[in-house]
Structure formats: structure tokens, C-alpha cells
Amino acid sequence: MIEFVTEDISHISINEDNITDWIEKIINQENKLLGDVCFIFCSDIYLLKINQEYLQHDYYTDVITFDYSNNNIISGDIFISIDRINDNANTYNISFNNELLRVIIHGILHLIGYNDKTDKEKKIMTSKENESLKQYK
């Protein structure tokens, strides 16, 4: 099951059904099963506090993923800063929706097992993001 909630921001307008179908398709293509995934859309300040408290990082970020996956069952909490999505969309001259979808699938790819610490991992992650975005209806 996929859940979409907000913390300290107003509701955002997304097509939850389309996003859910898309995520399930990507998970299935990776030979994984969907467990419980919760997307928490929030502000920069909210996500900064999580970054400081749980990861001991003192900077803004667009997404933080807490992985509760077990074997092939994908589960976790994915926190997304809507402030960062807006800034990134403006910086890269893309739509808010496109950047939001990229960050959503980035979190899912982390739950599937992809990382982005090294240059090689970042290249693979970006490639997977791009492949996944092409499949969104």
C-alpha cells in the first residue's frame, strides 16, 4: 500500500492513483513486491530537523528515505521537501511535477536497493530515474 500525507504544508495536488500504479510497475520490474510505503511531503524546515536528528546532517535536502524493506518486500517512509522541489525545478528549468516525480522515484529506487554515494552509483541511479520517468503515464 502507498500512502501520501503532508506535514506542515498545505495539501499538494498530485494524481495518487497514477503515481501508485507507476511505482508498483517499477517495483515489479525490479522483481520486488510492494509492501507499505508512505510519502510525507513537508517543508525545508521539517526535513532539516529530520536530517539533523536522525542522520546528524545539518543541511537542506530534497528527500530522505527510511528503508524498512524486508527481503523482496519494499517498505519505507520517504520524506520529500516541497520547498526543495520548487527550488530544484526553477534551477533546472523543469516543471514542478517532473521534479516531484523524479524525487518520488529516487526514494523508491533507494528502497529497491540503488544508492548514490559514488559517481558510479549516481550514474546508475540517474539512468534508473530517467528510465522510470519515461514509463510514467
Give a structural overview.
By secondary structure, the chain is of the alpha/beta class. It has a single domain (about 1-135), classed as 3-Layer(aba) Sandwich (Collagenase (Catalytic Domain)), CATH 3.40.390.30. The chain is built from five helices and four strands, in the order βαβαββααα. It has helices at about 15-30, 45-55, 80-90, 95-110, 120-135, and strands at about 1-5, 35-40, 65, 75-80. The protein has a four-stranded mixed sheet with strand order 1-2-4-3, with helices on both faces. Strand 1 (about 1-5), helix 1 (about 15-30) and strand 2 (about 35-40) form a beta-alpha-beta unit. Helix 3 crosses helix 4. The longest helix has 17 residues, at about 95-110.
CATH superfamily grouping: Metalloproteases ("zincins"), catalytic domain
Low-confidence stretches: none
**Distance separating the two termini:** 20 Å
Percentage of residues in helical conformation: 40-55%
Report Rg: 14 Å
Q: Give me the number of helical elements.
A: 5
Tell me the series of helices and strands, N- to C-terminal: EHEHEEHHH
Mean pLDDT: 95
Q: What top-tier CATH class fits best?
A: Alpha Beta
Can you tell me the CATH topology? Collagenase (Catalytic Domain)
Largest sheet: 4 strands, mixed
Largest sheet strand order: 1-2-4-3
How many distinct domains? Answer: 1
Mind telling me which CATH architecture this is?
A: 3-Layer(aba) Sandwich
Task: Find the count of extended strands (DSSP E, 2+ residues).
Answer: 4
